[in-house]
Amino acid sequence: MPALPVRDLAALVGETNVLVGEASRPYLTDATEAEGVSGLADAIVRPPTAESAAAVVEWCYTRGIPIVPRGGGTGYAGGCVPQGGGVVLSTELLTRTRSLDPIHWCAQVEAGVTTRRLQTLARENGLYFPVDPGAAEQSHVGGNVATNAGGPHAFKYGVMRAWVTGLEVIFAPGGQVTKLGSSVRKDVAGYDLVSLLAGSEGTLGVITAVDVRMIPAVAARYPVVAFFSSLEAGVEAMDTTLASGTAPSALEYLDGPTTEMARRSFPKALPEGVVLTLIAEADGSPGEATAGRTALLEALSPESTGVYAPTAPGEIEALWRWREGIGIAVDAAYGGKVSEDIAVPLQALAAAIEATLCIGESHGLTACSWGHAGDGNLHSTFVFDRTDARAVKEAKIAAGDLFELAIELGGTISGEHGLGMLKNGWLRNQWSQEAVALQEGIKSLFDPKCLLNPGKKES
Ligand SMILES: Cc1cc2nc3c(=O)[nH]c(=O)nc-3n(C[C@H](O)[C@H](O)[C@H](O)COP(=O)(O)OP(=O)(O)OC[C@H]3O[C@@H](n4cnc5c(N)ncnc54)[C@H](O)[C@@H]3O)c2cc1C
Questions:
Q1: What mean pLDDT, rounded, does the chain reach?
Q2: 386: CB partners within 8 A, 6+ apart
Q3: What is the per-residue pLDDT for 373?
Q4: Atom of ligand 1 nearest to the CA of 327
Q5: CA 8 to ligand 1 center in whole angstroms
Q6: For labeling, which of 198, 261, 372, 401 is most exposed (least CB within 10 Å)?
Q7: Is the CB of 251 under 6 A from ligand 1?
Q8: Closest to 365 (Cα-Cα) out of 272, 257, 229, 274
Q9: What DSSP character marks residue 161?
Q10: What pTM does this model have?
């Protein structure tokens, strides 16, 4: 491809908003950098408005130039990593809160607003926005929609899609800013295009603004952490919790090896010989949360070897900070990791936790898993010394075994992070031929030239 006429792009978005050469480097990776994933782009473009973003899309599409939408760059699938040139369209300057209506519990924010900012905006207005993926300081609301992000509290409150009532999107052919849905909470007039965009990983359109709904702030939350010396005891306690009629706001787990790797940073001394750690939380009005906490303690304590149930706000915050840092603690323990996000039916959770360890062993790798137990979503992980080329190669093969396992157990190859470029080609093992053909048809309808995030989410 001939060199990109950067000056033309600068005319659309301003000279300082087009980056090339060394300045583009931070935009060529995402959270998979530790796995050695990086890309190449001709230019990074940072449109300051939705209209200028549309002009960039139109300019690129007409000239056959690939467009790679990028939010906060925290994705775990290489989704925003450009493959072989083109323009990275970063939403980082689209940070306006266009409206916020605390009385009617809704807001419209631009795509580049960080997840944390939206959570804070909600809190400052007596509301709650419950989508809480672990990299909330960096990830963008647009990226959260494009990956249909979850997090610990998705168990009770659902993933990003559940909180989006409307989108402003640039569709590539034509490059017009288009509105889908609105702040209206119910809308079945047409096909559900908002849902189609949720989780589309930048392959169908560029999201420039998002209408979200919220709920009144939750007054109290009480977590209960329980430790178990066998997987059976832990899973039984989890089933007892689910059958008890309490609806925990979160139900998370760490297996034994993960608990060991995160032991030092846990706010209290942990029992020895932990095979499973469960973190559940009760929330609601102070009365509801207190009753929920009692029910959780009753369900989780009997078979456990120890329980930690903080009630002081500082201690609760410290506990969730610890949970958010699990991935970092695992990284720090060995230096390198391949971490996946398979999800399985709840009945198969224990089997998947055990099988993760077996798959690691069969490849000569240390394995562990943690994740969103209530959603059957495992971050099955293989850890290694990053300089060990054999281990790096084996871990990638082992990841394939994990995908096969998930499919065999009736689950999915991705519960959270999407396919990006790392799981290309796997969907056809999970879906029927007919479903794959439909997905491919949808892609070509939205993007006939295949220029929107090419090489991603391929079936
Ligand atoms: C420490 C850590 C913890 C995490 N925890 C969780 C978790 O609990 N749950 C979870 O679901 N994920 C988690 N993630 C993954 C990641 O944070 C989420 O996938 C997040 O939603 C990505 O948002 P982003 O803005 O960083 O997107 P990016 O990484 O920039 O992009 C991700 C994908 O979305 C597309 N995209 C981005 N913005 C737009 C846009 N405006 N329009 C169209 N397409 C766009 C990109 O092309 C790419 O395909 C975690 C990541 C880290 C590093």
A1: 96
A2: 34, 335, 336, 392
A3: 98
A4: 1
A5: 29
A6: 401
A7: no
A8: 257
A9: G
A10: 0.97
CA-proximal residue: ligand 1, atom 21 (nearest): 144
Which pLDDT score is estimated for 174?
87
362: phi then psi, degrees, rounded to nearest 5: -65, -15
> Which among 271, 290, 355, 280 has a CA at the least distance from the CA of 323?
280
Check if 151 has its Cβ closer than 6 Å to any atom of ligand 1. Answer: yes
Q: What are the strands of the beta sheet with 18-19, ordered from one edge?
A: 18-19, 43-45, 87-90, 67-70
**Tokens in use for 293?**
């906490």
Question: What single-letter DSSP state applies at residue 32?
Answer: G
385-416 per-position pLDDT tens digit: 989 999 999 999 999 999 999 999 999 999 99
Q: 422: Cβ below 6 Å to ligand 1?
A: no
| Ligand 1 pocket test target in 68, 147, 148, 164 with most atoms within 8 Å of CB | 147
Q: Whose CA is nearest to atom 4 of ligand 1?
A: 134
- The pLDDT of residue 290 is 97
Q: Is 72 in the pocket of ligand 1 (CB under 6 A)?
A: yes
More confident residue, 60 or 336: 60
Residue having the nearest C-alpha atom to atom 27 of ligand 1:
143
**Helix (H) or strand (E) run with residue 261 in it:** helix 256-262
Which segment of 13-22, 28-37, 201-210 scores lowest on mean pLDDT?
28-37
Other Cβ atoms less than 10 A from the Cβ of 429: the count is 14
Asked whether the predicted pLDDT for residue 2 surpasses 90, the reply is no
pLDDT over 70 percentage in the chain: 100
Strand partners, 176: 171
Q: What pLDDT does 1 receive?
A: 52
pLDDT at 35: 82
d(CA 396, CA 419): 14
Element (H, E) at 49: none
User: Tokens for 75?
Assistant: 């994705």
CB-based contact 110:145 (threshold 8 Å): no
